[in-house]
Amino acid sequence: xxxxxxxxxxxxxxxxxxxxxxxxxxxxxxxxxxxxxxxxxxxxxxxxxxxxxxxxxxxxxxxxxxxxxxxxxxxxxxxxxxxxxxxxxxxxxxxxxxxxxxxxxxxxxxxxxxxxxxxxxxxxxxxxxxxxxxxxxxxxxxxxxxxxxxxxxxxxxxxxxxxxxxxxxxxxxxxxxxxxxxxxxxxxxxxxxxxxxxxxxxxxxxxxxxxxxxxxxxxxx
Length: 221
Prior knowledge:
By secondary structure, the protein is of the alpha/beta class. The chain has one domain: Rossmann fold (3-Layer(aba) Sandwich), CATH 3.40.50. It is built from seven helices and nine strands, in the order αααββαβαβαββαβββ. Strands 5-4-3-6-7-8-9 form a seven-stranded mixed sheet. It has a two-stranded antiparallel ribbon with strand order 1-2. β4 (107-112), α6 (115-127) and β5 form a beta-alpha-beta unit. α2 (10-21) crosses α4 (69-78). The protein starts with a helix and ends in a 16-residue tail after the last strand. The mean pLDDT is 93. Its main location: cytoplasm.
């Protein structure tokens, strides 16, 4: 992409942060800086680039979406990242949330169950020059035991928590997910304590469903 083309997205991105994110109460300066920096237009379908910085989720194929910018910022802020963390993401999608996280922690490990989306995310993250990310095409409900334990786990599809995720969290680590079914979800943050779990509830929201298994092709549009 030319310098002129890149600069043409700068103003819409800054406006997105000011009007859609900061104005709604997102106050973590590191999160705001990441949202101002990550080029969302590189992660959407070419036909939808003109809508990249609008206040909406957008389709990315196979029944999946790139989340609304505010929801990406909201979930990221709830993780309270300081910069040293190792974060597991369940549901890479097109890689946008992954890119935002990678600006705020030491390393992101991200799992996508749909093979073509996994490959697309790899290409997107390479184009956006995010190097501290490891990607895997697998069933996200199984987590990624090889690199556990994690400081935080974020889930970008709606459903119910896998016991394996909590097992793969460090003591003091956070699991954040949109919990619920049939499109009616609520953000839930569970902090793993030495003895038990602390549970907190936040925004009502709607996410695509969390599914099991691996899909090798984009069978749904």
